[in-house]
């Protein structure tokens, strides 16, 4: 071991385990008896014997005590001392620049070294006593679990060469196997044909027809509420086109209806169709499904329509169904509003949609992935269901696109009504405010997109100069590249101008994200003018408390100006009636997919013309309004017409699993038929990941594991986590983690309280080194507090959203119901003892998180706290090289890590590549749940490798145990995936129980202290150790 650790038994990775506060409970306690390792208290004693400068304390592994960066003599560093005039951050930037030049001089071999960076010097070591104990347990297993399974496992050459029907002959027959093999051999066409023979479509019921007609006529004659609502409906633009709409729908199988917000198409078209059937004595033959892209839209529209029909929702003719919630009316003679995802789930079980007469796909112009998928699927199904009607409803902008996709089907446009909105652009605002941007460090032609700025703004400036409409100072301001950046002083002055010179009316400001909302709020509240009670500044973001979000709909008292700072959620999802002024910064933060580098990105980008039009329209709902676009007229001419469809800016993992579950054949041919087909390379990337996770085999067929994952309403990583949680009997904590991954963070961040929320998160994490263990623990703690009647105070103290926690609780229940229905659990109670034998074993829960998130692995090379108190880390992934943790991660604030390995849920590229929801993990879970492992020797050292990138030092005797356990586990996983059943944990002699207990014992033992880090494999060069603020 290197002298940076003083002595081998003072290894930081082990000695700091005392900080974890006894979170582990479970087998393998003998790990603490090894004399090789010391306690945290002993480490403190060692530090007293070997005092160091506080600045150079070894806060983590590989701490270079001899190196000296800024301010030192330069000894121990390959770089000279920095120039004496540099201070603070400039020193770090100086050394970062030298480091970059050094790497370039060495030939730019950074990419080639990525695989080596994941190796480090980690040694897997267990005591002889534990080794003997595990071997004894292995000897108790029956012979059939000990045989080699490589020739039978999915992924092996023998298995892949076999036909689909014979590949799984080694598995005993079962109902699951029958259904699974049918999913591999049957096509959607043959399934629809089979279902239509056994599932009858809606049948005529004369008595039901009469009942429906009598009820409707009675309302028209006797219901005061119905009559009032009917008069209001008659004022909508769509009502005036009722006959034209019905004529078009009745004569065609597919139609496109377009119209602006407020024309009434969402609430009225379905009612027109239903009432027409009822009045023709055919009400029993009508069942309409109307999809919405969001949950809130489905429920609120259903409630509105039920109110217009003077009904209790879910009782007569109007209902809704969303995830975890439904109020469904009888099938015959009814309208059901649902999310598009719900419709896709139904099509998975019955793609013929035999009991449906009409499908209305609303808001299809938003181009979300699920809507595009359903549209493609319906196009294939319609020839087999000639009686099924499809109505596509879209905003006016791109209706023709959908019409062409459905063979130029007829379309109809409903004119909307909004008040006129006056528009101003950046040049107008600069002229109005006489604003000047700060001097830019960028030269002309070096704007946000390189020469794009000069190419776009140059001709526009020449045009403005020619027409002499604007002053010279305005022209010079436009020439400054800073004019295309978000400027908070400009925003503040514009808002002040509106407040001082314009009549009453709320101001809606569109910003890209939370960071920009927070900065503008700080800027405004720092102005004395806005500290008055005459102004109500409301941030609108999902991180804000629900009570704050709801307050945007409240009209302020007379004389009080409401100022709303919002993201693009305010474009279409909500309507704020009193908005008169819109300030559009012109930027939007959207997830995209960098196909070439196989990474998702999240960067502010220019809005599309469709976005800009929607934002402008927010100002004209109740009276004439004004929209201020903070981009120039020249920039507007370069904006895209519409946002990129979600399918073109997302990974396709879940889409491909849906394709397989719906028996649509190979992924690429189906995706080629989508409205805007994704790049073939994106398909390839997702297929590679699904094969790596054993969701698909090499022939692109589902494996038994993949078939089970396809039944769960989550992404494959989270689904695998759920199945492993059921297998290892730790359902409560794993389902809590899965719920948090499937919805949103329960923590709220009130403006100005960011640091306090960070402190609370660190406190609640209790040294777990995991964002996911934190969120899972918070949900379970809250559930206990609710039982004791203290749920509300617990949320208040810890900045938690009770509404979000309630949703997470319901999600957890849904997951357990799914696992119970799939026969993996004996009860649907998430707290049942039989489902939580190992739930108190945090080491195991951490390992199951690793099993779910693999291959999302990162390696931490260096970690140090520098003089200013900031944490600096050097972290890499095999695919990307240098990465950083998101500042919201609890591990970003931590400095002590017993292991250098981390798994993460999400990786996004913005200014840097950022990891979200990280969890520190130990080596053995990577060996048990990662790719194929192999033992080898290199330079006289014994090693074991997981896939291409993860390498550990490991004695042959230990490697053979791990390999044998892994082989048994692979066989068990395949058997349990194809024969779902509960593991009999109470039967200690059952071979499945024995095997899993051996794995649990090793995992728990490792977490208790048996990991050794040899610093000699790591470079002493700290020149690329950069603080988060500098990245």
UniProtKB/TrEMBL annotation:
Keywords: ATP-binding, Helicase, Hydrolase, Nucleotide-binding, RNA-binding. PROSITE patterns: DEAH_ATP_HELICASE, HELICASE_ATP_BIND_1, HELICASE_CTER. Its EC number is 3.6.4.13. It comes from the Eukaryota. Residues 246-415 form the Helicase ATP-binding domain. PANTHER family: ATP-DEPENDENT DNA_RNA HELICASE DHX36, ATP-DEPENDENT RNA HELICASE. Belongs to the DEAD box helicase family. DEAH subfamily. This is RNA helicase. It comes from Thrips palmi (Melon thrips).
